[in-house]
């Protein structure tokens, strides 16, 4: 976990620096496009896309944000981030761990964000945007305006190629291995995976492997391990594969993945148990959630062992609970995937609300106050403040009355 925290911290540090360095150029690009096509709605990626939300606020246009990473969105106190040494579910943790993850970790994250916020505000001044000291930027993450949608899956997917279809038909116990389009693993790790696959095939645990590679040169790894890919017809190597079609095939029994959000959704939708090697970003969190749900097991990128991979593949195939949990989540994911239509409706509501709350500027264009947009969705408790919104003052007074009456009763008896 310490390695993951250090590794991810470096990635986030780079992302923060880039977000500051490219703020002005990105803002100007968005501004030029907005002027050319007279933008009515901004659809922004939520993760550190400050120029998008700032420009929407500056122009008085509605903005909708989207994200697959929940770490920057509001969560109940029992949900934490494993990247920072916590667990996604703190239900059974000690008071010390819950205190650390609910109080100490957020304070550390806020402290580490101060330089980025200061840098962004410096860049904002260069393009005439007022400073904003919330690290999350000009977007509301209040629960009424933050709604979970998905998994969002397209209605049409690429089908199997003839070669893949023939391979899957001939191998009724296939393991599918893919680490996305941006992940690179060192040659020695590739060798470890290769040896694991050969061991699983030799033990007749699986009878085929589809290995989808983008960043990894598997042929070099075969040579490093003194193997030839031509000698192993049960391993199908492809630079790109139609992932959903492969997972949908009845002969695909295991999905070895990095645990990205899209891969996790497709695995749940097709009821395919997962063996996950989380690399960075939201992947450790996704892996822990899937393991808690009972449809996945994790392996470590820093301690990758053949025996560990073989043992966990056997568990995924032989333990009936993984199959039942996969089918349970398949039902839920297929029901929830219909919420993508609700997402489209929410975008339509946001855009059309401008007609009723917008004010025309000198050029006849509607402008709005983004702070008041969708005010009908904002519940009164958010305006009442923490104490009044949670009725803490009322409960405190009620407790005071109880103690007062009880004290008076005891005093009367004593007298």
Q: Can you walk through the features of this model?
A:
It is a single chain. The chain has 415 residues and is of the alpha/beta class. It has 3 domains: 2-146, no CATH class; 162-336, Rossmann fold, CATH 3.40.50; 385-414. Helix content is 51%, strand content 9%. The chain contains 16 helices and 10 strands. The strands form 3 sheets. A 6-stranded parallel sheet has the order 5-4-3-6-7-8, sandwiched between helices. It has a two-stranded parallel ribbon with strand order 1-2. Strands 9-10 form a two-stranded antiparallel sheet. Helix 3 (50-59) links the parallel strand 1 and strand 2. The protein is globular. The model is unreliable at 1-6 (pLDDT under 50).
Write the layout of secondary structure elements.
Elements: H1 2-21, H2 23-37, E1 42-45, H3 50-59, E2 63-66, H4 95-112, H5 114-126, H6 162-170, E3 174-178, H7 187-202, E4 208-212, H8 218-224, E5 235-238, H9 243-248, E6 252-257, H10 261-269, E7 274-276, H11 283-292, E8 296-298, H12 306-318, H13 320-336, H14 340-357, E9 359-360, E10 366-367, H15 381-389, H16 392-414
Parallel strand pairs: 1-2, 3-4, 3-6, 4-5, 6-7, 7-8
Antiparallel strand pairs: 9-10
Helix pairs in contact: 1-5, 2-3, 7-8, 7-12, 10-13
């Amino acid at each position: 976990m310490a390695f993951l925290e250090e590794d991810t911290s470096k990635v986030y540090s780079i992302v923060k620096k880039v977000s500051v360095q490219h703020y002005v150029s990105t803002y100007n690009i968005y501004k030029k496009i907005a002027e050319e096509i007279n933008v009515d709605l901004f659809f922004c990626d939520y993760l550190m896309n400050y120029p998008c939300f700032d420009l929407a606020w500056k122009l008085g246009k509605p903005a909708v944000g989207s994200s697959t990473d929940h770490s920057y969105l509001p969560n109940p106190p029992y949900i934490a981030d494993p990247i920072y040494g916590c667990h996604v579910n703190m239900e059974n943790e000690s008071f010390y761990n819950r205190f650390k993850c609910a109080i100490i970790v957020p304070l550390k994250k806020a402290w580490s964000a101060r330089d980025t916020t200061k840098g962004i505000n410096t860049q904002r001044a260069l393009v005439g945007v007022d400073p904003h000291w919330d690290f999350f930027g000009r977007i509301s993450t209040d629960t009424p305006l933050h709604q979970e949608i998905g998994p969002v899956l397209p209605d049409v997917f690429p089908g199997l190629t003839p070669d893949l279809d023939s391979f899957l038909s001939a191998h009724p116990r296939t393991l599918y291995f893919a680490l996305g389009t941006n992940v690179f693993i060192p040659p020695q790790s590739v060798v470890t995976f290769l040896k694991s696959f050969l061991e699983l095939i030799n033990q007749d645990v699986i009878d085929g492997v589809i290995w989808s590679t983008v960043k990894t040169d598997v042929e070099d790894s075969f040579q490093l391990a003194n193997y030839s890919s031509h000698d192993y017809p049960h391993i199908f190597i492809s630079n790109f594969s139609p992932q959903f079609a492969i997972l949908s095939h009845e002969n695909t029994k295991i999905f070895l993945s990095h645990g990205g959000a899209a891969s996790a959704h497709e695995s749940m939708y097709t009821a395919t148990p997962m063996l996950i090697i989380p690399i960075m970003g939201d992947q450790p969190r996704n892996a822990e959630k899937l393991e808690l749900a009972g449809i996945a097991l994790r392996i470590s990128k820093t301690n990758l062992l053949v025996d560990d991979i073989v043992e966990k593949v056997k568990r995924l195939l032989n333990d009936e609970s993984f199959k039942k949990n996969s089918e349970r989540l398949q039902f839920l994911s297929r029901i929830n995937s219909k919420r993508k239509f609700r997402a489209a409706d929410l975008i339509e509501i946001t855009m059309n609300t401008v007609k009723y709350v917008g004010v025309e500027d000198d050029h006849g264009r509607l402008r709005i106050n983004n702070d008041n947009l969708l005010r009908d969705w904002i519940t009164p408790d958010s305006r009442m403040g923490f104490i009044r919104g949670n009725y803490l003052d009322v409960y405190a007074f009620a407790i005071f009355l109880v103690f007062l009456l009880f004290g008076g009763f005891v005093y009367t008896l004593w007298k």
